[in-house]
TrEMBL record, chain A:
Phosphoprotein as UniProt keyword: yes
Alphabetical UniProt keywords: Phosphopantetheine, Phosphoprotein
InterPro entries for this protein: ACP-like_sf (IPR036736), PKS_PP-bd (IPR020806), PP-bd_ACP (IPR009081), Ppantetheine_attach_site (IPR006162)
Provenance organism: Actinokineospora iranica
Molecular-function GO terms, alphabetical: phosphopantetheine binding
Domain spans labelled Carrier: 3-81
Gene3D superfamilies in the cross-refs: ACP-like (1.10.1200.10)
Full protein name: Act minimal PKS acyl carrier protein
Top-level division of the source organism's lineage: Bacteria
Lineage: Bacteria, Bacillati, Actinomycetota, Actinomycetes, Pseudonocardiales
From TrEMBL, chain B:
Residue ranges occupied by any Ketosynthase family 3 (KS3) domain in the UniProt entry: 1-403
Identification of the protein by name: Act minimal PKS chain-length factor (CLF/KS beta)
Swiss-Prot/TrEMBL GO biological process terms: fatty acid biosynthetic process
An MF annotation (GO) of this entry: 3-oxoacyl-[acyl-carrier-protein] synthase activity
Similarity remark: Belongs to the thiolase-like superfamily. Beta-ketoacyl-ACP synthases family.
Automatic annotation (TrEMBL), chain C:
InterPro entries with a match to the protein in the record: Beta-ketoacyl_synthase, Ketoacyl_synth_AS, Ketoacyl_synth_C, Ketoacyl_synth_N, PKS_Beta-ketoAc_synthase_dom, Thiolase-like
GO CC annotation terms, alphabetical: cytosol
BP terms from Gene Ontology: fatty acid elongation
Signal peptide extent: none
Native organism taxonomy: Bacteria, Bacillati, Actinomycetota, Actinomycetes, Pseudonocardiales
The keyword Acyltransferase is assigned to this record: yes
Every Ketosynthase family 3 (KS3) domain range: 1-411
Family matches, as Gene3D superfamilies: 3.40.47.10
UniProt-recorded name of the protein: Act minimal PKS ketosynthase (KS/KS alpha)
Amino acid sequence: MTTMTTEDLRRVLIECAGEAEQDVLSGDIADVEFDDLGYDSLALMETAARIAQDYGVQIPDERIVELRTPREVLELVNNSLAQS
Amino acid sequence: MSGPVVTGIGLLAPNGFGVERYWEAVLEGRGGIGRITRFDVSRYPARLAGQIPDFRAADHLPSRLLPQTDISTQLALVAADWALLDAKIEPGAFADYDMGVVTSNACGGFEFTHREFKKLWSQGPKAVSVYESFAWFYAVNTGQISIRNELRGPSSALVAEQAGGLDAIGHARRTIARGTPMVVTGGVDSALDPWAWAAQIASGRVSRSADPRRAYLPFDSAAEGYVPGEGGAILVLEAADAARARGAHQVYGEIAGYAATFDPPPGSGAPSALRRAVELALADAGMRPDEIDVVFADAAGVADLDRVEAEAISAVFGAGAVPVTAPKTLTGRLYSGGGPVDVAAALLSIRDGVVPPTSGTTDVPSGYRIDLVRGVPRAGRVSSALVLARGKWGFNAAVVVREATV
Amino acid sequence: MITGIGVRTAGGNSTKEFWNLLTSGSSATRRISFFDPSPYRSQVAAEADFDPVHEGLSPLEIRRMDRASQFAVVCAREAVADSGLEFDTVDPSRVGVSLGSAVAAATSLEQEYLVLSDSGRDWLVDPANLSPHMFDYLVPSVMPAEVAWTVAAQGPVTMVSNGCTSGLDSVGHACQLIREGSAEVMLAGASDTPITPIVVSCFDAIKATTPRNDDPEHASRPFDRTRTGFVLAEGAAMFVLEDYDRARRRGARVYAEISGYATRCNAYHMTGLKTDGREMAEAIRVALAESRTAATAVDYINAHGSGTRQNDRHETAAYKRSLGEHAYRTPVSSIKSMVGHSLGAIGSIEIAASALAIEHGVVPPTANLHEADPECDLDYVPLTAREQRVDTVLTVGSGFGGFQSAMILRRPTGGVR
């Protein structure tokens, strides 16, 4: 079964929105809020679109704005992958 | 009374990355025109362009900006950074509403949008980037420069093909006259992806020559079109008293006059309105023709257009009475970037007392009656210059720059 | 002074039809018919039933011009006829053009792209299939050139492309040129025809347009609690602008005077808005100051009112910040509820609506507004037009790149003639 790892998400974020403004991407980012990483709503929308293409997981529009940390994204994506 | 002054320049051209390197190249006659390397150009009927070699946006801009910007915007942001750095504007020198941005743009973020068109039609609508909604449109450079530098004053983006860059400087000057003390202005374009390249060829004016030294020969009897290029310049323009008040460490010169006119409809047989643009710009600067030391020509490289420009210059100044030059022969025509780069070159001519030459052109028809500076730079005091730019479909713009009296 | 108006919108094939639509309070939005919209998130738009032949464009003009240029030229001709100004009596060097557009020749670019790239299969395009007009689509300043040729203008001609505030800013630009003496007469306005797959998909991507596809006629719902984004539209509006003395001298009918204009940038985000409305409020304050108009004199606000949540709240905050208590007493309406959001063109179309509100003494409504967003607590003139004397209108625009613009229109001294 495919899962998305923190490393995978880091890669997608960098491709979609560039490296985080703060130099925290090298550490554990799972619980750092996107605001603190310097990623805005556009960055997350672009990331969600890429996840839909690469992993086949659709994140509903209203959920995208609620996601605050990489961990929340990973949980949503991996739960959805586990159910499929 | 003095017009606004230029206190900072950021410039990226095919023959020089940064204003001093560009100026060195221009005085040494080093060009940046060559065969296009960005894509396989072999099937296209024109193959030469002025490309900025080895531009790596990541070396100059934050990573977050890269996925959302076209190369033209990346170049514009770097040019704006350099201009503000050159002007040494300290944070807090101006209130946020007292700093505006007026840029010109002719092609938008075209390579970026080409990529999104391709994604749309090969992968479907969901593959289109969120950034396409603003990376393409013509206001993108003004918006991104405003955001990056927290400039919240009156701002705008103008389009008038190659004339637009001078229109932007003219409008920045107007904006300062209306009460905004500092405006970041100029123009940058880059459209060297396969689709934009084909579109440029469709203008019918792009040179098909394969010889970089003979491809763009404005005012030459052998003129057969122009070579497009990428790049441009961003200037920091300040009200003279504002520059004085903050103790600006350098003043390149004054934007003393500006005018824009439009040609009569094609086929009307009426004469071009270029001459009137020159006269109005001189009047705006309060100067007589004999006070102008050099003319930076639009230099279309198309015989009919060259003739019209030569006639306008000799009609206003007299036959051969003023040196005329076109250093853009070394860079190609940069669309919205062309006028601002010429304004920068004119300011540097004033600074260094030297007129840069026109490269390539050897045989100027005697009927043109212009003194075209060729071969080597011409030394001598330069206290003022006229810069001309013309845009396809009939746009004419003229800017007078003058030594600042501090 | 506005002495001539030409408008084309969905449901408005003339200035008169446009005004009738606005006062009726019905929406001209529908399911997209220009192409199959089923693969797209947002499938509704405000499409104009524009027939270039019927509009009097020659076959050559139709072949040469992109749709947005066609709209601009048709509106320019309507405005010129409406003004009664004989352009051959005016020195052409004193006539200029200022045209706004956000995405310019998007329609033709997309058509040409499909031909050149073998429907998107190739990155290298095939120059053998190149349209001779392709350069005109790449560099959109051909649009103001086309408008200039309609009256042989030889003064300053330019294109103002500030995204969604282009239509306000192009007219503001023209007013500055008249005021400083660079031109006596300006043809000013804006045109955009963005209903094409690339533009639909880029607004899909940022979820700015509405996905309310099952009910196209009621999809544009600015300020309503249930609104879900804007409805993409096409359209154009052009004006003949003259200075006061000139208009008086020739006894022209004057719709309205443009007495104040200002623009600011939020330097915040290319698409996002801060909730406080600070920069739009500043633009309003400066426009009022230029007009020498007290905030309390504003008796109608023609809103940007795009129907996105962030916009509706942003501008509501801006009105309160700039007008204070008076904001609560002033009718505010969004004509985008009826003609959709035509990007760069809508600012000029809203200027036309503002001028007509002064002339007719009618405030157009916000259609489809049944229950306002609780955060939006002003008088948004729901559903039905309101007859009232209108002397001073504030119209605003807000757009990508952070542009915030405001303009004041006023009943001309001596009244509307």
